[in-house]
Amino acid sequence: MKLITSLNIRYEFFILNDLKIASEKSAYDELVKCGNNYFEHFQLPLSHIPGVFQARNLFHQLKMDPTRHRPSSEALLRRAMKQKKFHSVNNLVDVCNWCALDFLLPNGVYDSSKIQGDIVLREGLENESYEGINNRQVNLAARYCLADDVGVFGSPITDSRRTSVDLHTQNACIIIYAPADYSAEILQSRKELMITRILRFCQ
Known about the structure:
With 203 residues, this protein is an alpha+beta fold. It has one domain (3-201): Phenylalanyl-trna Synthetase, Chain B, domain 3 (Phenylalanyl-tRNA Synthetase, Chain B, domain 3). It is built from 5 helices and 9 strands. The chain has helices at residues 26-41, 52-61, 72-81, 91-103, 184-201, and strands spanning 3-4, 10-16, 107-111, 119-123, 129-131, 137-139, 144-147, 152-154, 172-178. A 4-stranded mixed beta sheet has the order 1-4-7-8, with no helix packed on it. A 3-stranded antiparallel beta sheet has the order 2-9-3. It has a two-stranded antiparallel sheet with strand order 5-6. A hairpin with a 4-residue loop joins strand 7 and strand 8 (152-154).
């Protein structure tokens, strides 16, 4: 399985196997600590927080309006700055949310066994949509998204239920999105840190 795209953006894509997914709160506690750190050291508006512009630049490059559809990383930051409780899903998703908030870059995590064929990052076609993990129908027409042989399943806004991670997941594929001018070296270090965190909490 590989990720294919002709877009001029940066990303890191990797696969981790033999994970142990559980409803365990240690990673969630780290997410909460990260959110509290933002709240204690920064003030609204979000645009004044260093790093927020990176995901917004990414969205502009993906032909998405970040003021209308927030990057998932910024949605987490918004919750943190308003002292709203985060949603705990499972240890793997909680780690990925922690990393999205920490790096201020959106990411996606998917159950590899639920994906068929290679993954393509492309523009959504007319009438393409999926049921999101937020239980809402997500319209992908003219928005960039991830698709496999079955159809669309992911985006930097929210992902689909079809390929979502659950307690039966053993193998996962993960993508970190960044704008084209993001440092390749820093993004590589983000990936390595994310892998370290996932293996720490999910093995």
